[in-house]
Structure formats: C-alpha cells, structure tokens
C-alpha cells in the first residue's frame, strides 16, 4: 500500500464520500461491462478511463493534467476506486467542480471491500460506467500533456480499428532508460513486428486510446487480479484480431516509475509464457523451419519452451561466441527422444533465415545491430525479435 498522502482541501476522509455520478440530462445505466452502460442525453465524445487504488500522492497532478487539455470536444472522466484505503476518493471528488466548469462531466464509483479486485476489474468497471465514443486510458499516477486527447482523437479518426499510443517522458528521469528509448524510438512498422519482445505492448498501456467499438469487439480485460498482465493479454487479443498499432510521435504523457506500480506484481515467467505462446501462434506455426539467433541461455530456453512440433523446425542456433560455435551443437538433455536431439550451432553468417532473435537490443554498443544490418534482412519477414 502506498504510504504517501496529500491534504484534501475540504478535509474529507475517503470513506465518507459515497459513489456518485453526475449526469447532465436524463441518465440511464444498464451496467454492462464495456458496453457504455452510462448513457446521457448529451453525447460524449471521449471518456477518460481511470482506475484508482491508493493514488492520493499523485492524483492532484494527474487531474490537473486532465483539466489542462486543449481538446474542445465533449469529455467525461470515469473513475473506479478499487478499495483505496487512503484519501483517493475524496481527492477525486474535490476536483469535481473544477472539472465540471471545464466541461468535463464525472462518473465516480468503487467499492470498499477488504481487498482490491485488481486493475483489470477496475478498468472494466470504469469503461462500463462511461459513455464516450472513444476511450482514453489514464493511470492515476501519470500526467497527460495538454495536447494528448486531441492528438490521439485525431489519430483514432483515421485508425478506427487500431490502438493509439504516444511517446512518453519517464519520471524520475533516467529510470528504465533502455525501455524508454524503445517506447519512443521504434518505427511505426516495428510497433507491429516487435510485439513479441520482453518489453510487452509496443505502445504502453498508460498511453492507450481507442474507439469504444474496437474495445467491445476485443472484449474486456482479464480480471484475474494481482499478477495477471491484463494489458498484454488484451494487446495480444487486439493484434490477433487484426488490430493496428499506431503511435503519435509526440511526448504526451509523463509516465511514472515507482515501486507501488501494479506491473511489479507480474512475474517474468508469466510474461515469458504468454510471449512464447503468441509467437508460436502468430509466426512459428506458419514457418517450415527457422534459426534461433543466440546459442546461450535465452535461445536455449526458447527452444525448450516450444512445442515438440516446432522444436523439430529449428535448423540451428547461431551466435558469435567462438566457444559455442567450436563445440558445434546443443544437446537437448531434457528430451525423451533417443538419441537426444542435437541442434547445430553456427556462426550467424553461416546460418539461414528466418530467425527468431533472442539477443537483447541496445546492449552491445551497436555491434549486434550492425551484424544484423549486414545481412540485409527484412524485419517481420526474415526475422522477429523475441528478447
């Protein structure tokens, strides 16, 4: 639980504030998750979807960012409080008048059970009670720049079946440097080809913007709770159903890094298994044969995690390590086959595409990247990055 706190302007405690909803005009709510259950007589163009759990020390700055938006269309803020034990609910309520004067209607609900029900549940509830044609996902610990909604809204008009992201500024500055460079600098084409890497979605969840129609087509977030990467699961479902991935190439979000973030509860092995499954489904199952680039720990682990059918498609490992190449092969000791499979280990120049690359990017001073570039291959055809 976050121990930060902020004094609330009216001194209210979170538990004293009931779940409320402001509706301008006649209201009807059907409670269907992801279905735009909240209906108003005035059409809302953009719903800002914000789950909240013990976010008191960040909320004022987050809500100020919403107040500062230069978007001129209709907006609402849909907040679902997932059993906060701090003053989060009271802080949100304290911003109601300022946001309404700005023209941002508010929907606030939640629960006060002993345990939170998880980020997936909170997002689903916030979507369900909202009514906008478009959904702008906002984390309570981040801050949107003034142009965020209007630029992502414009991008979504031309990409109605896509997930729209943006570039970010990491706070504190310098945290997760490699990850931040990757978020901001991969090309538009790589937003679709690098979806299997360990970094996760190629547009990060706190920057997501999409149409309600597309969200409903994909379905709701997984509600498995703590430890479930609901954003990665939804992202893979979207890509798997033909959804595009688009990034607005401007910094539109301050993306905070801190130890209370929900992402820290997700095990690396959980992410690994999802990535392997999606890689096999989308890529390897369609190939007749391929090479794993990296005869070391990560490459061998990928091989062992493949289905037996796909293991037989591996022509070789390739590497630059002379000791691995000199040995000549990798023996799959865990195999029940007799004799045990032995997969050749080759120099990368002697191997054949397509490749699944298990070498970390941005870690060798550009040496690996130059080696790959020298082969004149096409990403998404001749190779995919996995690490």
UniProtKB/TrEMBL annotation:
Stretches that traverse the bilayer: none
Molecular function terms in GO for this entry? Answer: hexosyltransferase activity
Highest taxon of the source? Eukaryota
Domain (Glycosyltransferase 2-like) ranges: 47-218
The name this protein carries in UniProt is UDP-GlcNAc:betaGal beta-1,3-N-acetylglucosaminyltransferase-like protein 1 isoform X3
Note the Pfam families from the entry. Answer: Glycos_transf_2
Q: Which gene encodes it?
A: b3gntl1
What the entry lists under PANTHER family is as follows: GLYCOSYLTRANSFERASE (PTHR22916), UDP-GLCNAC:BETAGAL BETA-1,3-N-ACETYLGLUCOSAMINYLTRANSFERASE-LIKE PROTEIN 1 (PTHR22916:SF3)
């Amino acid at each position: 639980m976050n121990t930060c706190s902020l004094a609330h302007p009216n001194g209210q405690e979170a538990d004293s504030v009931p779940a409320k909803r402001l509706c301008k005009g006649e209201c009807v709510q059907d409670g269907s998750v992801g279905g735009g259950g909240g209906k108003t007589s005035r059409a809302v163009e953009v719903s800002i979807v914000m789950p909240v759990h013990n976010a008191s020390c960040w909320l004022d700055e987050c809500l100020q960012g919403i107040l500062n938006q230069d978007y001129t269309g209709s907006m609402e803020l849909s907040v679902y409080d997932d059993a906060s034990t701090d003053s989060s609910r009271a802080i949100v309520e304290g911003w109601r008048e300022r946001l309404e004067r700005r023209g941002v209607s508010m929907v606030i609900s939640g629960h006060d059970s002993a345990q939170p029900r998880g980020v997936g549940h909170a997002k689903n509830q916030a979507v369900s009670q909202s009514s906008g044609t478009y959904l702008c996902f906002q984390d309570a610990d981040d801050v949107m720049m003034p142009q965020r909604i209007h630029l992502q809204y414009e991008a979504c008009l031309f990409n109605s079946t896509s997930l729209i992201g943006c570039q970010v500024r990491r706070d504190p500055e310098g945290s997760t440097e490699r990850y931040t460079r990757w978020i901001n600098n991969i090309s538009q084409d790589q937003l679709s080809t690098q979806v299997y890497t360990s970094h996760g979605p190629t547009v990060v969840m706190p920057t997501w913007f999409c149409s309600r129609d597309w969200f409903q087509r994909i379905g709701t977030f997984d509600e498995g709770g703590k430890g479930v990467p609901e954003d990665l699961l939804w992202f893979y479902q979207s890509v798997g159903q033909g959804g595009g991935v688009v990034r607005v190439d401007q910094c539109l979000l301050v993306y905070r890094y801190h130890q209370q973030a929900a992402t820290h509860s997700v095990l690396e092995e959980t992410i690994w298994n999802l990535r392997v499954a999606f890689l096999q489904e989308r890529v390897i199952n369609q190939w007749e044969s391929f090479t794993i680039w990296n005869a070391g720990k990560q490459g061998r682990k990928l091989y062992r995690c493949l289905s037996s059918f796909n293991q037989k498609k591996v022509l070789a490992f390739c590497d630059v390590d002379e000791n691995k190449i000199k040995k000549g092969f990798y023996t799959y000791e865990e195999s029940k086959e007799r004799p045990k499979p032995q997969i050749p280990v080759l120099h990368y120049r002697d191997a054949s595409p397509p490749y699944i690359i298990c070498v970390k990017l941005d870690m060798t001073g550009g040496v690996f990247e130059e080696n790959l570039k020298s082969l004149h291959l096409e990403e998404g055809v001749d190779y995919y990055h996995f690490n």
